[in-house]
Amino acid sequence: MKKFVLLLLLPLFLTAAEPGFYVWQRQNSPALKKAVSEFSKLSTGELYVLAGELENDHSVTSVKPADFVDFSRSTPVIRIHIAHLDKAPDDLANEIKTLYLPWQSCRKLQIDLDCPESKISRYPALIKALRKILPG
């Protein structure tokens, strides 16, 4: 019976997604290029790349795609600090869109938002505003 159960579960183990690789560096370097290249050769996992950050001091950091980023396997990540949740959702969505535009060939986006539960109710309005202005 154990062998039968293992045979049934085998396809699940063989098709499990490989872990992703996060690139949080804001500047490219030969070491980063080498690490991404090695990951791409050894894994079929997704590459998650910092595309920008809306800082708590209201500054904005934009990270342009490096020439070694494979858009077909990459997801740009935009970090939003909670101070920005006080903005109107449409305004915040437009700031995110500006950071996303150089990455739009990826055709996906991940939002990294760390916020207290007391402010999480503002998140759905932001997502609705983003869906209105971003394709897909």
Helices and strands, with pairings:
Elements: H1 2-14, E1 21-23, H2 30-42, E2 47-54, E3 60-62, E4 74-80, H3 89-100, E5 110-113, H4 123-133
Parallel strand pairs: 1-2, 2-4, 4-5
Antiparallel strand pairs: 2-3
Helix pairs in contact: 3-4
Q: How would you characterize this protein structure?
A:
- The protein is an alpha/beta fold.
- 36% of the residues lie in helices and 18% in strands.
- The protein contains four helices and five strands.
- Strands 1, 2, 3, 4 and 5 form a five-stranded mixed beta sheet that branches.
- The longest helix is centred in the first third of the chain and has 13 residues, at 2-14.
- The protein is elongated, with a radius of gyration of 18 Å.
- Mean pLDDT is 86; it is low at 2-14.
Summary?
The chain is an alpha/beta fold and 136 residues long.
Largest sheet: 5 strands, mixed
What is the percent of helical residues? Answer: 25-40%
Rough outline: elongated
The fraction of residues in strands falls at 15-25%
- Structural class of the secondary elements? alpha/beta
Distance from N terminus to C terminus (CA atoms, Å) equals: 46 Å
The average pLDDT value, as a whole number, equals 86
Q: Can you count the beta strands?
A: 5
